[in-house]
Specification:
Shape: elongated
Helix content: 25-40%
Strand content: 15-25%
Number of strands: 16
Oligomer: single chain
Radius of gyration: 30 Å
Bound molecules: adenosine-5'-diphosphate, magnesium ion, zinc ion
Strand order of the largest sheet: 2-6-7-10-1-11-12-13-14
Length: 471
């Protein structure tokens, strides 16, 4: 049998606000266990939540970036369940009046994935298992850190598309400045809903849900495993159970965790302690103004205004800090192509796999190197060495060039000696030149630049050659 894979994602992203969503505790990642807590985020009797305006604004920014409608009236709901890392025994979330609805995301395959909703909610804490002492500890630092949940329609057709959705959403949230999108720190995680249906059929099949996937690789492997598992069940005449499953990274398999819960299992009801939020047109326009150029808009600008190739533009915008660095460089030295060339080869290559997300020197310093190479103050290979040294040891580009004898000095005596001798030896070509065969100029230039490397700039050679030929 042939099947179509159907995937819908629920992506949780932790917002990078300074404080938590309903209290003033720090929302920063890490910290000694239970040092970022207070009566509100640990649910002590009588403590009352107050909503963090920045968290609401961040969620709206995300909604606008993904083309959502913003509900002018939005409300919070209480989702009740017990979990040892959730001391309140409920989570404040949003059920039927989320902040944002009806967005979309276009993939490189051309598929457009509809976004059903983006709502704001609070995170839970975490359990730390101490196998040595046979004990578990609860760390409530993450309790009430703001999360947005981005829910897609079941429009995703493959493991690769699912991975693209997660990485693209992460990239956009980073550009928006609302989430650091570090999967390894759990600031982006995805629940993957997956089902199969007979190829071409309209009716959706029964789905399994894989909870809390936190790496691109495991998302892809888990989906591939599920596709095989479900296909086997259906081919044997069975029915796929609607259940929540967990992915075992070491085994590469999924196993049942619990039967799938429904909304009414949670006894949702309107959260009585948090006021509804309302927006005017002006509020929304003010938020829209805070949205920087997004990756696809930067690509457009680089291609149309800066004349970079689409491929180069795309590579530069794959990380916001790199794209920002490129922008800062061309702001001081607007030679878009030559900046892009050294940037793509000498900078991207060195920071590609670094997690630090920083370049250890300023855009001004980099602009200086590109300019030195363009003006032949140093030759191109030495410019690359300067960049390498700036990465390894730091320092000012001009100082590095001087200390390493990279500065191309113009030895006018050497130019005259070489060019005069060359023209005397090739008198026949000089005559050709005077008879209108001006392309021999290129030949002379080539000979001279090669012979005079390190002693003269092409510009100085060209000037001398022109004057010598036209004497
Ligand atoms: P629930 O609240 O029970 O998790 P939702 O209807 O809110 O269910 O859907 C949650 C996610 O599951 C959404 O991302 C949706 O696209 C996806 N989904 C729903 N039905 C299917 C299906 N048959 N196959 C794959 N994904 C599905
Ligand atoms: Mg779900
Ligand atoms: Zn608190």
């Amino acid at each position: 049998m042939k099947f179509d894979t159907v995937i819908g994602l629920e992506i949780h992203a932790e917002l990078s606000t300074k404080t938590k969503v309903f209290c003033t505790c720090s929302a920063e990642f890490g910290g000694a266990p239970n040092t970022h807590i207070c009566p509100v985020c640990t649910g002590q009797p009588g403590a009352l939540p107050i909503i963090n305006r920045a968290a609401v604004e961040y969620a709206i920014r995300a909604g606008l970036a993904f083309g959502c409608e913003i509900n002018r009236y939005s409300r919070f709901d209480r989702k009740n369940y017990f979990y040892p890392d959730l001391p309140k025994a409920y989570q404040i979330s949003q059920l039927d009046l989320p902040l944002c609805i009806n967005g979309k995301l276009e993939l490189s395959t051309g598929n457009v994935v509809r976004i059903n909703r983006i709502h704001l909610e609070e995170d839970a804490g975490k359990l730390v298992h101490d196998d040595y002492h046979g004990q578990s500890w609860a760390d409530y630092n993450r309790c009430s850190v703001p999360l947005i949940e981005i829910v897609t329609e079941p429009d995703i057709k493959s493991a690769e598309e699912a991975a693209e959705v997660v990485s693209k959403i992460g990239l956009y949230l980073k550009y928006l400045g609302v989430c650091d999108a570090k999967m390894q720190e759990g600031s982006i995680r995805a629940d993957v809903n997956i089902s199969l249906k007979p190829a071409g059929s309209e009716k959706l099949g029964d789905r399994a849900e894989l909870k809390n996937m936190n790496s691109m690789r495991s998302i892809i492997r888990a989906i591939e495993y599920e596709v095989e598992r479900q296909a086997e069940i259906i081919e044997d005449g069975g029915v796929v159970k609607q259940e929540t499953r967990r992915f075992d990274d070491a085994m590469g398999t999924t196993s049942p965790m619990r039967t799938k819960e429904n909304a009414n299992d949670y006894r949702y009801f309107p959260e009585p302690d948090v006021l509804a939020v309302t927006f005017t047109e002006e509020d929304i326009e003010n938020t829209r103004k805070k949205i920087p150029l997004l990756p696809h808009e930067r690509v457009e600008k680089y291609v149309n205004e800066y004349k970079l190739t689409e491929e180069d533009a795309r590579v530069i915008t794959l990380e916001k800090y790199l794209s920002d660095f490129y922008d800062e460089t061309v702001a001081v030295y607007p030679q878009y192509k030559s900046v892009a060339n050294l940037f793509l080869t000498e900078i991207m290559r060195r920071v590609k796999d670094s997690e630090a997300e920083e370049i250890p020197f300023s855009a001004e310093a980099f602009a200086k190197v590109v300019e030195m190479a363009d003006k032949n103050t140093v030759n191109r290979n030495d410019a690359k060495s300067i960049i390498r040294i700036m990465f390894e040891e730091g320092g000012d580009p001009m100082d590095i060039a001087k200390a390493n004898n990279f500065i191309v000095t113009v030895d006018t005596g050497a130019i005259a000696e070489f060019v005069d001798k060359l023209l005397a030896e090739k008198a026949d070509l000089v005559e050709d030149y005077h008879n209108g065969k001006t392309n021999v100029f290129g030949f002379f230039m080539g000979q001279a630049t090669r012979a005079l490397q390190g002693k003269a700039t092409p510009k100085a050679i060209k000037e001398y050659l022109e004057q010598a030929l036209n004497k």
